[in-house]
Amino acid sequence: MNLKFKKPSKETQLAMSEVAGGKNRDIDYQKIAQEKLAGMTNHKFSKLLSSGNAAIFTAMNAIDGAIMIPDQGAWNGFKQIARFLNKDLIVVKTDKGLITQEYLSEILNSSSNIGALFLTSFAAYTAEQDISGISDFLHEKDIMLVEDASGAIGDDILADGKYSDIIIGSTGSPKIVNVEDGGFITTSNEEVLEKSKLLLKSFKTGNITACGISSELDFAKENLKKSIEATSYVKNNLSDEFDVFHLDKRGINVILKTDDAKKLSYDLRHELVLDSHGMITKCPNYNRLKEKAVAIEIKNLDISCLNKDNLDEIVEIIKKYQ
Q1: Residue 173: which of 164, 182, 185 has the closest Cα?
Q2: Helix or strand or coil: residue 297?
Q3: pLDDT by residue (tens digit) across 19-74?
Q4: Burial class (CB in 10 A: 0-12, 13-18, 19+), 7
Q5: In this structure, is the dihedral angle defined by the CA atoms of residues 141, 83, 55 and 99, taken in order, positive or negative?
Q6: Which of 299, 288, 56, 50 lies closest to 167 in space, CA to CA?
Q7: Which residue, 72, 75, 124, is CA-closest to 253?
Q8: E strand segments, 124-213
Q9: Which pLDDT tens digit goes with each residue over 196-219?
Q10: Residue 183 has what DSSP assignment?
Q11: Which contiguous run of DSSP H or E holds residue 248?
């Protein structure tokens, strides 16, 4: 089994190298990529940025009022950037990363002047949020929804501007739009971009990265589909031996409950070896779940590795440590 860490497609690598070498420099890849992003997210406006954190910074800067974030299963950059911007930060209790109206109501009944909820499309990368339901509930209270769609861009349900007021994301590695650099923000609220006009200028990315993002967006839908299908396959084939978190939810990684996360993660890191980086995350971990667990990061695998033979072998290796 030859497992590889996710790389940009060959088409994207070639396109970026040609721009870096001086070819097609007169093409405005910023405009092309931004138009594709706006179309994919059903938003009027989009901007490319230097990173996912730059996108969070830009979005959060434009929010008036307190910021809500999940108590787990999100991105620790939410907390760090909110504190840097001196935003009031409210942590929302979740159902193992999943936002529920019940827990949102508890916060809204005891707090005021809340500007937005920041969340990731997939809680802990393993379970899709009820974006449409959350959106309807927040909008009744005049609160904005900001969705980090780094792991869901190209989806038919998630990363949709019909529900999320602002969609942000990273195009670094190993994301669905995988350029190893860059990020984006989309919205239909022009005031959001106006409030962060200086940041958008400061965080602007270059034409080589824009070229890569434009190219990778063409493969996003299929890449995401394959990642979700592979994750579902692994989840279902481990469910008899392990307690799999959010078994019935779509996601792009698998999180297994265990009494000894340190040992299981150690063993699996030595068995599931990629050509660079890794695919095992030990929990408790804010970015995943605050549980004794191990995350199998299917999202880290190159699309070429997501075939049945490899997935079956991954499953059999993990089963040895049940």
Answers
A1: 182
A2: coil
A3: 999 998 899 999 999 999 999 999 999 999 999 999 999 999 999 999 999 999 99
A4: middle
A5: negative
A6: 56
A7: 124
A8: 127-128, 144-148, 166-170, 183-187
A9: 999 999 999 999 999 999 999 999
A10: E
A11: none
